[in-house]
Specification:
Elements: E1 2-7, E2 13-19, E3 22-29, H1 34-44, E4 54-58, H2 64-81, E5 85-88, H3 90-96, E6 102-108, E7 111-116, E8 119-123, E9 136-137, H4 139-143, H5 145-150, H6 167-173, H7 192-195
Parallel strand pairs: 1-4, 4-5, 6-9
Antiparallel strand pairs: 1-2, 2-3, 6-7, 7-8
Helix pairs in contact: 3-6
Length: about 200
Amino acid sequence: MLNIAFDTATDAASCALVRDGDVLGERPSRAVRILHDIDEVLAGAGVEPAALDGIVVGTGPGSYTGLRMGLVTARTLALSLGIPVAGVSTLDALAAGSPGSRPVLDARRGEVFTLLAGEYRCVRPDNLELEQGETAVGDGAVRYRDVLQGSGGLVPPDESPVHVPWARHHALLASAFGPPEAAEPIYLRAPDAERKLPA
């Protein structure tokens, strides 16, 4: 199966072209240029969009705006090409890139998105209890390095690729393909704009 995968839920967006587990092309991106980068990955592999069998999109949690851009892009491409979509959590993809590590994404507002007992959670970094010597990866781990290392955790160097939820991991984790609208976002909390509305 030939799939294009991408995730725009964090500042470290990426896209990848994967055929039956083999990565044919991958590149870092940004939400605002994801279509351009998808086109370049396809062109670099000599693949026409019509040859794609499916789309894999990151479902967050992450930036509300970035997440919506990725989902709208996935749905639009799927409808225009007539192919199915699979959603994969950004946290799961990040964890897959560093097995045994705790995925920690910067949720802004002094909070992080993470996995706790197999559940997606939004918590304050000082409430994130790591095992002694447990490794934390992701932009949230980088931002709150001092807090996490102070509680006994380990955080790889800022420039380490393990902090990026690479799209290849989304593609490898994808299983349930279906209609475009079936890929639902994982928000964990209301967007800033909604919180600021008068009661």
